[in-house]
Amino acid sequence: MTGYQSNTSVPPATRHLLVVDDDTELCQLLSEYLVPEGYDVESVHSGMEGVERALSGDHALVVLDVMLPDVRGFEVLRRLRARSRMPVLMLTARGNEQDRILGLEMGADDYLPKPFNPRELCARIEAILRRSGNDASALDVRIPGDLIVDDVSINRGSRAVRRGGETIELTTVEFDLLEALLRNAGTVIPRDELVRTVLNRSFSPFDRSIDTHVSNLRRKLGPGPDGLDRIKSVRGVGYQYTLWALSGELEK
Amino acid sequence: MRLHIKVFLWFWLGVVVVSGTLIGLTELTHSRTQDDRLWQEKYGPRVDLWARQETHILRTKGSVALEAYVGSFQADPGVLNYMFDVSGHEVFDRKASTPVLTIVNALMQSSGWTQRVDPVERIIAERVIDANGNPYVVVVDFPEPSVLSRPLFELLSADFSGRPTRASAVRLAAVVGVAGLFCFVLARHIAAPIDRLRSATKKIAREQLETRIDRDVLNRGDELADLGRDFNGMADRIEHLVTAQRQLLSDVSHALRSPLARLNVALGLARRHSVAGIAEHLDRIELETERLNTLIGQLLTMARVDSGVGLERKVFDVAALVDEVAMDADYEARARGCVVAVSGERNCLVTGAADLIRGAVENVVRNAVRHTADGTRVEISLERREGARGPSVLINVRDRGAGVPDKVVPRLFVPFYRGPHTDNNQNGTGLGLAITRRVFEVHGGSATAANADGGGFVVSLELPLYVQGDILHQHADTRPTTEEHGNAITAA
């Protein structure tokens, strides 16, 4: 957190948050908590209003509750995703696995079960903003331009993903995940490392969001030329992007 | 066999058998009497003629000539010819049957009749008087036409004149055809609404609660329409109850958690302005809030499992799920120098709510990690079993801890029972194992616990394996999810 606050190059709009939650008292408490952290908080209490305000382009991130009085949070997310790639952090009911998976599948950048610890919320918001901040600046010196592995190519600047000649739509997290995997293609990346580098948060066991992201990414990429998964799970360790050139040899 | 085909075939068979029998019987009775009359008309005058000729030959040419003459027209096999004189003596001394003698006696005694016919025995007797005035009785005994000697087809297709014709074959074919068409429509009429009721029942069972029987069935005005209306009434009620239950769970969850969410944020604010000595109390509040939250979550899970509402059933690999849980638990266990290891059966497809099973397994494995001694192994083994009710998988989770007094073991699964290790158990809500057992039970399995031989404690979880083609699991919507979920976890 402190590290972030020292980063003065981020434009002020990136600290403007939109909170969509029908609990007005909670919204009030949240702004009370977040303003001293350097955020600017706007709250709306219905899904329709949420969609409208989120599409205005005034905010850097949306904190979206799943339970809303008019339309469900997923519907708000769907409408938002149809028009914008703006980062979304979803607040889901604790213990509801389906909500979590659905949210991440529909393109939420992260989720937090409600009730949450406000420190955790701050950390997640920071993590997402830092990631999308990188995205905006596109100043990553390690990988300039295209990264190509077999038939898949990604471009860090435009964040475009192509498989063969075909464009694939990925969410921000999925793109970052794919980039991390491609950069280390052929070697296994431990799960906790993926959580730290891709989700920008410390690894905690029994949190399966990284696996959901991998599963979504697998589905979107489809099987490789040999019909097997492009991303291999390595039991007890983590995930690996398979290189075709090597995969044949490895099997021998 | 399908009801439609069954009803159709039985009706058809019934109609064909009944009409076949009718045609057969008609042919047998009618043709017999018709035949008798025709036979009598045909042979009556001939016998009269033969008798006159025979007596003439006997008188003019003698018995030898008569024998030759009789032999000439007796060429038909089975036709017997007798001649009796006035004393009742057979001219050639041939033995005659009783019916023949009866008819001869009757004719001798009667004065009016010159011919007598016995249509049953097929005998015609003729009384003649020769030129010398000597009376004789000539008897011709025709053979019985054998019914059995006729081909069956001829019998069935025989028309009323006793002669088989093409027309009656066509008639029989028409009966079979028309009956077939009629029976098909009738069977369809009976079976179609039953098919619809059945598919609607299956949909309700798959939680497509908006399913109703449509107007076509309801407008029939028979018992099946009543059944359809009752079905709709039942479906209305179920839909209402389930929706209400679901809404209640969701409302309770929301209502209980909203204050907790506010409490958490308020706590965060309080920490920011905390004065010396208060942090400790705030930690306590945070801990208790967390416990309350866990408890609410577990109560809601319990309610969800018990009501069966919203249990999304999928086919998934429970071995892969155990691997994932073990991997996370292993990560957690390393802090205390412990290891979580999985061994045994691979690829165990089961059907059920994967998130509930995961929660239940996770609960048991984390308990084991908590209770195992520092630097020991928690062993999870998967074992395939062939039971009376099909194959199942047994998941044994064994720790190397102090175990539990034997008399306490059965009570561990009772909700809110607090074990003897109160020091260790402070973080538990007393619902974990109760939920685990309920989850496995609603999936047709079981959860048991015991002190292991050689120390430690073992919890055994059993779950029936998914069998391809099993009616219970043959929901159209379970298939596609297999792959999707499998992708996420199979190779883990």
List keywords for this structure.
heterodimer; A: 252 residues; alpha/beta; Rossmann fold; Arc Repressor Mutant, subunit A; 5-stranded parallel sheet; 4-stranded antiparallel sheet; 21% strand; disordered N terminus; disordered C terminus; B: 492 residues; alpha+beta; Beta-Lactamase; Helix Hairpins; Heat Shock Protein 90; 3 domains; 5-stranded mixed sheet; 12 helices
Number of domains of chain B: 3
Largest sheet of chain B: 5 strands, mixed
| Number of DSSP-assigned strands of chain A | 12
Following the backbone from N to C, one meets helices and strands of chain B in this order, namely HHEHEEEHHHHHEHEEHEEHEEH
The CATH homology group name of the largest domain in chain B: Histidine kinase-like ATPase, C-terminal domain
Query: What's the alpha carbon Rg of chain A, rounded to whole Å?
Result: 19 Å
Helix content of chain A: 40-55%
Largest interface: A-B, 38 and 44 residues
Helix content of chain B: 40-55%
Strand order, largest beta sheet of chain B: 6-8-9-11-10
Give the mean pLDDT of chain B.
Answer: 80
Architecture overview:
The complex is a heterodimer of chains A (252) and B (492). With 252 residues, chain A is an alpha/beta fold. Chain A has helices at residues 2-5, 24-34, 47-54, 73-83, 97-105, 118-137, 172-183, 191-198, 209-221, 244-251; strands at residues 16-20, 40-44, 61-65, 88-93, 110-114, 146-149, 152-155, 160-163, 166-168, 188-190, 231-234, 238-241. Chain A contains ten helices and twelve strands. Chain A has a five-stranded parallel beta sheet, with helices on both faces. In chain A, a hairpin with a 3-residue loop joins strand 11 (231-234) and strand 12 (238-241). Chain A is globular, with a radius of gyration of 19 Å. The model of chain B is unreliable at 147-163 and 471-492 (pLDDT under 50). At the A-B interface, helix 2, helix 9 and strand 11 of A face helix 7, helix 8, helix 9, helix 10 and helix 12 of B.
